[in-house]
Design a protein that fits this description.
The structure holds two protein chains of two kinds.
Chain A: E1 3-7, E2 11-12, E3 18-25, E4 34-41, E5 48-53, E6 59-61, E7 69-74, E8 79-84, E9 93-103, E10 106-113, E11 117-121
Chain B: E1 4-7, E2 10-13, E3 19-25, E4 33-38, E5 45-49, E6 53-54, E7 62-67, E8 70-75, E9 85-90, E10 97-98, E11 102-106
Parallel strand pairs in B: 2-11
Antiparallel strand pairs in B: 1-3, 3-8, 4-5, 4-9, 5-6, 7-8, 9-10, 9-11
The chains are: A mainly beta, B mainly beta.
């Protein structure tokens, strides 16, 4: 059964870079039918897609965050990572990683998801 | 960008009720819609994709319908474990976006 697990600091200072890693177990990140994505959810609010990466390194980013986001992949470790620069309090959220279905040349839905990790931006 | 409107934001219901949640798009998206269930403190879980295809393992009391701009998630007989927040997500237009959520609470 495929499982995803986020890891990284729970507290980041304003203006610094948020860094998270998602470890995939129970399956290979080098699957031809899937991208691997990051989604976030501010406390008490809705969901926002951040970006997704293919095992080859091809990426798609949400235009609203594109200037601050970098997603990378390490196939040898079955991991992918998120970096979000110049964070502010507005970036405080639960960050989820998820498998991102790729079909008919578009990104589709997310399944399964990691349990999520809360990242707080505060000095 | 595609605007998504989920309604209602809050739905009070009892076990055994039939409930429907609406997701309306600002423009047509064919059937490129998914539904998720999220319980407090947990990650969302995929219920339905392609507007009406039930994800493997999801109980058959959940169903989805619609195409174009109007979509519906129906729970035919609400169970205690179904009290949660439900989100729709469109994947027709880039970037993909989610509805604002519908919380189903105990009446």
């Amino acid at each position: 059964q495929l499982q995803l697990q986020e890891s990284g600091p729970g507290l980041v200072k304003p203006s610094e870079t948020l860094s998270l890693t998602c470890t995939v177990s129970g399956g290979s990140i080098s699957s031809s039918s899937y991208y691997w994505g990051w989604i976030r959810q501010p406390p008490g609010k809705g969901l926002e897609w951040i970006g997704s990466i293919y095992y080859s390194g091809s990426t798609y980013y949400n235009p609203s965050l594109k200037s601050r986001v970098t997603i990378s992949v390490d196939t040898s470790k079955n991991q992918f990572s998120l970096k979000l620069s110049s964070v502010t309090a507005a970036d405080t959220a639960v960050y989820y990683c998820a498998r991102d279905r790729w079909d008919t040349a578009i990104l589709n839905w997310f399944d399964p998801w990691g349990q999520g990790t809360l990242v707080t931006v505060s000095s | 960008a595609i605007w998504m409107t989920q309604s209602p934001s809050l739905l009070s219901a009892s076990t055994g009720d039939r409930v429907t949640i609406s997701c309306r798009m600002s423009q047509g998206i064919s059937s490129y819609l998914a539904w998720y269930q999220q319980k407090p403190g947990k990650a969302p879980e995929l219920l339905i994709y392609a507007a009406s295809t039930l994800q493997s393992g999801v109980p058959s009391r959940f169903s989805g319908s619609g195409s174009g701009t109007d979509f519906t998630l129906t729970i035919s007989c609400l169970q205690s474990e179904d009290f949660a927040t439900y989100y729709c997500q469109q994947y027709y237009s880039f970037p993909r976006t989610f509805g604002q959520g519908t919380k189903v609470e105990i009446k």
